[in-house]
Specification:
The chain has a single domain (3-237), classed as Rossmann fold. The protein has nine helices and seven strands. It has helices at 12-23, 36-45, 63-77, 100-129, 141-144, 150-170, 188-193, 196-205, 214-224, and strands at 3-6, 27-32, 53-57, 82-85, 132-137, 175-180, 236-237. NADP nicotinamide-adenine-dinucleotide phosphate (NAP) binds at residues 7-8, 10-14, 31-35, 59-61, 86-89, 109, 137, 139, 182, 184-185, 187-190.
């Protein structure tokens, strides 16, 4: 049986990714940071799946917590086949208003978090196994930039660079590394950071005329972890309803 670690699995897109892998028969480590009850509810809801779904609290920006989670996963399940780096935070403000503290926080969670978890998983499992798939959740703003989201866009563009460089480094180890860069997906992140009016303007700009669903992102992530996608590496695939081409 295969094992996946999903960071930020307690809400939104990460939650949908946890469901997709659990229903596909994987053992799942659902990483969360603050949403304990939500993580607990998901684990309870998925208790009858073929694989085992377990929650593990770790702040992805904290290397000790990340190492504890990865070591636990290897001890419990033997190896890690798939890593989905999904955890992320958003910051919407003028570039001239961003404090050093906010800049560091966004980069620490969104980019250093990917470094922390990926290096830990490679060192503790995937390199030895000479097998694995890593999927990093970037954003369309990592491709085209978002006004009033400079820190966020920089972190998500950093994920694109990390993905491409690491894909080259790991190709002969039979580990593929890809980025998924969603457009506007209907989650708390959208509701908490944008006004209803702003969301309506964005929706009108999307050629398909609607936001994406977390499930639409999750199914793509699941596909990228399969053997059918093994020849795909270093790519940035963007489910965005035609907003960015
Ligand atoms: P969300 O609903 O706000 O969920 C964010 C998730 O990230 C939560 O599970 C949260 O866990 C976790 N998280 C945040 N900080 C963390 C930390 N320090 N350590 C571990 N986990 C942490 O957001 P979402 O919309 O699902 O976004 C998921 C990913 O997709 C993010 O990387 C985001 O940038 C990206 N994305 C989203 C959209 C969109 O339109 N929604 C578009 C493009 C890209 P806790 O709640 O447990 O703290």
């Amino acid at each position: 049986m295969k094992t996946v670690i999903v960071t930020g699995g307690s809400k939104g897109i990460g939650r949908a990714i946890v469901y997709a892998f659990a229903k596909a028969g994987y053992n799942v480590i659902l990483n969360y940071n603050t949403s304990y009850q939500s993580a607990k509810d998901i684990v309870e809801d998925l208790k009858d799946c073929d694989g085992i779904v377990e929650m593990f609290k770790a702040d992805v920006s904290n290397r000790d917590e990340v190492d504890s989670m990865v070591e636990y996963a290897v001890k419990e399940f033997g190896k890690i086949d798939v890593l989905v780096n999904n955890a992320g935070i958003c910051d919407v403000e003028l570039f001239t208003d961003i404090t050093e503290e906010t800049w560091n926080k966004v980069l620490d969670v969104n980019l250093k978090g990917v470094f922390n978890v990926t290096q830990s998983v490679l060192r503790n499992s995937m390199i030895n196994e000479k097998n694995g798939s890593i999927i990093n959740i970037s954003s369309i703003y990592g491709i085209c930039g978002g006004s009033c989201e400079v820190a966020y866009s920089a972190s998500k563009a950093g994920i694109v660079g990390l993905t491409k460089a690491l894909a080259k480094e790991l190709a002969l180890s039979n580990i593929n590394v890809n980025a998924v860069a969603p457009g506007a997906i209907n989650t708390d992140m959208l509701k908490e950071n944008y006004s209803k009016e702003d969301l309506e303007v964005t929706r009108e700009e999307i050629p398909m005329g609607r936001f994406g669903t977390p499930d639409e992102v999750a199914e793509l992530v699941l596909f990228l972890s399969t053997d059918n996608a093994k020849y795909i590496t270093g790519q940035v695939i963007s489910p965005n309803g035609g907003l960015v081409m």
